[in-house]
Amino acid sequence: MSERLLPRRSLADLARGRRDAVSTQALAEAAPIVDAVRAGGEAALREYAERFGDVRPGEGLFHDRSALDRALRLLPAGDRGRLERVTERIRRFAEAQYRALCPASVPVPGGIAEHRIAPVERAGCYAPGGRYPLPSSVLMTALTARVAGVRDVWVASPKPHVLSLAAAAIAGADGLVAAGGAHAIAALAYGAGPIAPRDVIVGPGNRFVTAAKQLVSGAVAIDLLAGPSELTVFADDTADPGRVAADLLAQAEHDPEAVPVLVSLDPTLPDRVEAELTRQLGDLPTAVTARAALANGGVILVTSVEEGVAACDAIAPEHLQLDLRDAAALAPRLAHYGALFVGAGAAEVLGDYGAGPNHVLPTGGTARSTGGLSVYTFLRVRTWLRIDDRAAARPLIEDAIWLGRAEGLEAHARAAERRL
Question: Could you give all domains of the chain from N- to C-terminal order, each with its CATH number?
Fold first, then answer.
């Protein structure tokens, strides 16, 4: 019997095959590039951009707002209309997120304590641009920053296609630098040419982008360290094998290191999905990439819904898709995922391409501790204290004096005493 495209796995097998988001080798290769751009600015950025084929020698490296607007005008009306429609869905969801976070005010003895919400001033948004343009990532990152209120937004993307330039215009970006990899992340972090150093850098990328984000994370905030993309489909006997195979291949074609997984309640479904994978790979232009990724993932057979829930939670995938008879009822029982897609109609690809929620999500099991990119990534919750009535504040001040001395910090206690 030939080797299966999607091998049978145990949870332990999948855990052993899981890679860290940032390898030691990637860090070692990215570090000198980051250091060179930090020290050399625009000249070093150009050197690496030309060396790695982001731009041709002498070609413009920076696209300002007027250049982005020109690209938008060049788009056929139908393409522009679709980009604008997707933009509006992403905007509506991000605006709803923003409204959900409100200022808070709490009375304290003698005064008031509050938190106030403010955006960072400068954001850098990375959008991959290797084999194909990814205007969806431009929209997901730059538009979300704008909705959060960020004043200065630059996109970095290598070999930018007119679609990516136009997406940056629609998203409201101030400019785009035609560079990728570690050198682009360093330029965003430390500044280069017209780009001032960013306060936060977000967006997906390859292992060198991820390594560079880790290296600069002490100087700027980052969204997350994302490794290879992941999809887990939890399915039962109601699932259509052709649809399940199509969903797994859609994830697998991202990257040869992607991780597509089927958790099946139906013992006959994996063989039927395997047959569909073979058939659909026959005319898939990205078959070589997808075939390699399928070997990273696998099939986990479970005998009960409870066992399936436990398996999905243990994987904590970037994307979790429920192709089940009672998907809506089961959804609240799942605890760990980057994004959840409930029911046969809620394809993960619809999330990738602008249903509304963001597609920049945690991988490698980190969904247990963090969520994906959102307006909150660009916001700071800052606290604020005002004391108007020192007499009324006496209990608060006395407690501060006691705690200062209990912790051996006499100057703290004396500073509090001066408020009595």
Answer: 24-222 (3.40.50.1980), 228-337 (3.40.50.1980), 389-420 (no CATH)
